[in-house]
């Protein structure tokens, strides 16, 4: 784990997990790298009660500037840079979420799904609904950027 990262005291980090600089893991979140590797990229955040797990042969790789929403499940997949995975969304084994994409709250991205960059994915099963605008992509990046200074406040308070 990078010295610049922050992990909430009641979050669980188990097994083969790499947490990059300024990444932050919030209360009740679980990163369980007991089967394969998990990577949480720079400035990415794993929000309260989210779960990251793997499958043999399917590590979970989360790029830089990614927000994984409250209670989301990200399992054995790749989430490229600049994405937001909404609250209670699920991304399953072998899926690839292209850079600067938004997976809507409650969506379920099925195994092996490949989502192009800058996509809005919604529904069960998750389907690409449209391409994101430049303004929407900036909003995704702004969301992850807001979590970094917030995590530093908690870290300084030794919470």
Automatic annotation (TrEMBL):
SUPFAM superfamilies: Trimeric LpxA-like enzymes
Protein name per its UniProtKB record: Gamma carbonic anhydrase family protein
Organism listed in the record: Microbacterium schleiferi
């Amino acid at each position: 784990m990078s010295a610049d990262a922050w992990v909430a005291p009641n979050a669980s980090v188990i097994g083969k997990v790499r947490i990059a600089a300024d990444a932050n893991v919030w209360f009740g979140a679980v990163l369980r790298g007991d089967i394969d590797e998990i990577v949480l990229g720079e400035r990415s955040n794993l929000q309260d009660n989210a779960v990251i797990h793997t499958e043999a042969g399917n590590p979970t790789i989360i790029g830089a500037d990614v927000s994984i929403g409250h209670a989301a499940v990200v399992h054995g997949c790749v989430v490229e840079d600049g994405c937001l995975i909404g609250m209670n969304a699920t991304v399953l084994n072998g899926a690839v979420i292209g850079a600067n994409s938004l997976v809507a709250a409650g969506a379920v991205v099925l195994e092996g799904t490949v989502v192009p960059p800058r996509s809005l994915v919604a529904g069960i099963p998750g389907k690409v609904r449209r391409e994101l605008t430049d303004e929407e992509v900036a909003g995704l990046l702004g969301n992850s950027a807001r979590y970094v200074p917030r995590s530093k406040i908690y870290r300084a308070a030794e919470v």
